[in-house]
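Chapter summary example: a protein plus heme C.
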Amino acid sequence: MKNRLAVGALALWVVTIAAAGFVFLHGDTAKAPDGRTAILVSPGQRDYVLSEMRALLVAVRDITDGVLHDDRGKVIAAAHSVGMAAAHDAAPALMAKLPLEFKRMALPLHKGFDDIAAAAQAGESTSALGDRLIGQMDRCIACHAAFRLRAER
Ligand code: HEC
């Protein structure tokens, strides 16, 4: 009897870990009609992610402006506004819905903006800064090609 209980507890434990692992890897997703992976979120979570996205677009615009006119202060401020510090405020409920692959694309993006700020600070040439920015935009493109958001309820 004791043995049975132990096996039952162990089985439950394995199932729980497997389920947690599955959620960690896949988040809360479905196949979208356009072939991308739809991340299933609440309307509020969708608004939150999209407002973050618009902030990224503003930062890319301001960095481009700063690089073009060699205004390092502008590059640094804009890049920092979307750096790692901006990546840590997402709510745990949203984080659980995001698939691992999405997070693996999002984190290097934020880190890359910190790198741009550091490089601008260190006096890197504007053409090298421009190359970094293009590399960052490749990340925007890759994620947009793979994922979309679907608001539920
Ligand atoms: C880790 C994934 C990911 C990365 C990286 C990413 N995005 Fe997005 N972005 C999304 C998703 C998902 C959507 C929603 C697309 C949809 O539902 O069709 C989106 C939507 C947007 C939107 C639309 C906002 C709105 O209000 O409708 C803009 C603008 C945007 N992204 C800009 C950017 C820019 C600029 C970058 C790069 C600097 C970037 N994104 C990088 C995932 C990403």
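Key point: The domain at 28-151 is CATH 1.20.120.10 (Four Helix Bundle (Hemerythrin (Met), subunit A)).
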